[in-house]
Amino acid sequence: MKKVEAVVRHFKLEDVKNALTEQGIHGMTVCEVRGYGRQKGHTEIYRGTEYAVDFVPKVKIEVICSDATLQTVIDTIVKTAQTGQIGDGKIFVSEVANAIRIRTGENGEDAL
Fold first, then answer.
1. 46 forms bridges with which residues in the sheet?
2. Is pTM, for the whole model, over 0.70?
3. Segment 39-98, tens digit of pLDDT
4. Domains of the chain
């Protein structure tokens, strides 16, 4: 099993969720995050005063999937979240040792 963490723009969340659902991927965790990458934030002007925004607001989507569906999840997120502009986000993939469904006690991929 793999854990896919995708940090994307806020307005792409619904598109990514719908695209993953169409691909048969069910279940995800979403949280609002703030951070910066190479662009190191940006500056904005509010009422004539310029100020720095060091941490850019993003959304982090976490999906646990089988090894067989990993590439589908990655391809779907890239295709859906991409705008071609700086700040589109990143995808991180890591190994998941086990998953347990609390209600039934199922283990591994059965718990997904």
1. 49
2. yes
3. 666 666 777 777 777 788 899 999 999 999 999 999 999 999 999 988 899 999 999 999
4. 2-111 (3.30.70.120)
Are the C-beta atoms of 110 and 16 separated by less than 8 Å? no
Burial state string for 46-72 with b = 16 or more CB within 10 A and e = fewer than 16: eeeeeeeeeebebbbbebbbeeebbee
- Strand, coil or helix: what is 49? strand
Is the pLDDT reported for residue 102 higher than 70? Answer: yes
Distances (CA, A) of 102 to 26, 57, 60, 107, 108: 17, 32, 24, 9, 12
Q: Which amino acid is at 15?
A: D
Assigned token pair, 54: 């060091």
